[in-house]
Design goal:
Layout (H helix, E strand, L loop, with lengths): L2 H26 L8 H29 L18 E5 L5 E7 L18 E5 L4 E4 L11 H10 L1 E2 L6
Antiparallel strand pairs: 1-2, 2-3, 3-4, 4-5
């Protein structure tokens, strides 16, 4: 990959790493011994955010280190849809949008009924919002349509450590 292409991917890598760090810091600073069900759900959400951010960082790093002859031609179709999207609202706040699917653990459900089949998460660092059900083909929506969904999404409770 050319140096120019690598430089273009650097901001995406930095955003993914920042999101990963924020999510892990939030999840890891919670006192699990005192956590109620809501706090445990929040930890699960933060770990899902961290999971998606780690996948994004890995994907970008692989793109940055790909050998030129191994790289796909510029006109080749992309094999899969992105795991996340980033949008900016009118105030310049950048939101990372991605799907969250709760774990399939057996026993008492830890997620409210409306979120059991997953939700679309909107995360800007200090705030996370959730929208359920996940809109069909949300990856193909315009930024303005995603921002509209973000405005209508339910704020997720944020616990301070």
């Amino acid at each position: 990959m050319s140096t120019h292409q690598s430089e273009q991917l650097q901001p995406a890598l930095e955003r993914a790493k920042a999101t990963l760090k924020t999510a892990l810091d939030t999840a890891c600073t919670t006192n699990v011994e005192r956590a109620d069900t809501g706090e445990l759900i929040r930890i699960e959400e933060m770990l899902a955010i961290a999971n998606e951010a780690a996948k994004e960082a890995i994907s970008v790093r692989r793109q940055m280190t790909r050998e030129p002859e191994a790289a796909a031609p510029h006109d080749a179709p992309i094999a899969s849809e992105p795991a996340s999207r980033e949008i900016a609202d009118d105030t310049g706040v950048r939101w990372t949008v991605f799907e969250v699917h709760p774990s399939g653990a057996t026993g008492r459900p830890a997620v409210r009924e409306r979120f059991r089949n997953g939700w679309l998460a909107f995360d800007c660092g200090p705030e996370t919002r959730r929208l359920a059900p996940i809109p069909h083909e949300w990856q193909d929506l315009s930024d303005s349509a995603l921002l509209q969904l973000c405005r209508g999404a339910e704020p997720a409770a944020r616990r301070t450590p």
